[in-house]
UniProtKB/TrEMBL annotation:
<dbReference type="InterPro" id="IPR003593">
    <property type="entry name" value="AAA+_ATPase"/>
</dbReference>
<comment type="similarity">
    <text>Belongs to the ABC transporter superfamily.</text>
</comment>
<dbReference type="Pfam" id="PF00005">
    <property type="entry name" value="ABC_tran"/>
</dbReference>
<protein>
    <submittedName>
        <fullName>Amino acid ABC transporter ATP-binding protein</fullName>
    </submittedName>
</protein>
<feature type="domain" description="ABC transporter">
    <location>
        <begin position="2"/>
        <end position="235"/>
    </location>
</feature>
<keyword id="KW-0547">Nucleotide-binding</keyword>
<dbReference type="GO" id="GO:0005524">
    <property type="term" value="F:ATP binding"/>
</dbReference>
<dbReference type="InterPro" id="IPR030679">
    <property type="entry name" value="ABC_ATPase_HisP-typ"/>
</dbReference>
<dbReference type="InterPro" id="IPR050086">
    <property type="entry name" value="MetN_ABC_transporter-like"/>
</dbReference>
<dbReference type="InterPro" id="IPR003439">
    <property type="entry name" value="ABC_transporter-like_ATP-bd"/>
</dbReference>
<dbReference type="InterPro" id="IPR017871">
    <property type="entry name" value="ABC_transporter-like_CS"/>
</dbReference>
<keyword id="KW-0067">ATP-binding</keyword>
<keyword id="KW-0813">Transport</keyword>
<dbReference type="InterPro" id="IPR027417">
    <property type="entry name" value="P-loop_NTPase"/>
</dbReference>
């Protein structure tokens, strides 16, 4: 579903990704961990060309993202959820969910609304369709953001620290939605330090440091039997 081959990214003189090779199969839930500034967000953003790699290849669903004609198609297939929810504040929750369906997918309004309501139900917010984002809690807003990404029927979902801006009591409601997505077979790449989620839901964990994948394996391998010294040090700080 996703293939990165020798992906490098440079900002000025700063080489942030130093040759990332990664294959992600359909249905995998890949968790990325690593210190702040190690390149986790940049890797994720290269997967939908929010950042264009300096060199290397990114292929999603058999489409090379450097092909400008394919890029718009690929972007609709890759949903992204950020740390900050980025909902449109002047639109109701339902309007947030129907906008891209109508504008990008050219879905008829009634159909977009029906789909929007189904997705709100799925993330446990059916009763919030007419509410405005600022009236919702952080956890609710993040669930709306997930539903909004799902409205485009993505084949892949990318999550960049989706719970790190939330109050602790709201973390689980967002992780539960993500877990149910994973159980439905969604291909997911998740940057998170939520080890419980990684262990329970992750099929594979990658440790990135200074722009390189230093270790990867099953959650048990990475968390319980880390081999790389920098990974051991990182885990000793966060666990
Ligand atoms: P992480 O998500 O692991 O914290 P990032 O991928 O956000 O790391 O950033 C990796 C490095 O790239 C950092 O040193 C950051 O300052 C730098 N960086 C990220 N985005 C940009 C940008 N748009 N311009 C310049 N430097 C950037
Ligand atoms: Mg980041």
């Amino acid at each position: 579903m996703i293939k990165l081959e020798n992906v490098r990214k440079r900002f000025g003189k700063n080489e942030v990704l130093k040759g990332i090779d990664l294959h992600i199969e359909k249905g995998e839930v890949v968790v990325i961990i690593g210190p702040s500034g190690s390149g986790k967000s940049t890797v994720l953003r290269c997967m939908n060309y929010l950042e264009e790699p300096t060199s290397g290849t990114v292929i999603v669903d058999n489409m090379d993202l450097s092909d400008k004609d394919k890029l718009n198609t690929v972007r609709t297939e890759v949903g992204m959820v950020f740390q900050r929810f980025n909902l449109f504040p002047h639109m109701t929750v339902l309007e947030n969910l129907t906008l891209a369906q109508e504008k990008v997918r050219k879905t008829a309004k009634a159909e977009a609304q029906e789909r929007g309501r189904k997705l709100l139900d799925r993330v446990g917010l059916a009763e919030k369709a007419e509410a405005y984002p600022q009236s919702l809690s952080g956890g609710q807003q993040q669930r709306v953001a997930i539903a909004r990404a799902l409205a485009m029927t993505p084949k892949v979902m990318l999550f960049d620290e989706p719970t790190s801006a939330l109050d602790p009591e709201m973390v689980h409601e967002v992780l539960d939605v993500m877990k149910s997505l994973a159980q439905d077979g969604m291909t997911m790449v998740v940057v998170t330090h939520e080890m419980g989620f990684a262990k329970e839901v992750g099929t594979r964990v990658l440790f990135i440091d200074e722009g390189q994948i230093l270790e990867e394996g099953t959650p048990t391998e990475v968390f319980d039997h880390p081999k790389n010294e920098r990974l051991q040090l990182f885990l000793s700080k966060i666990l």
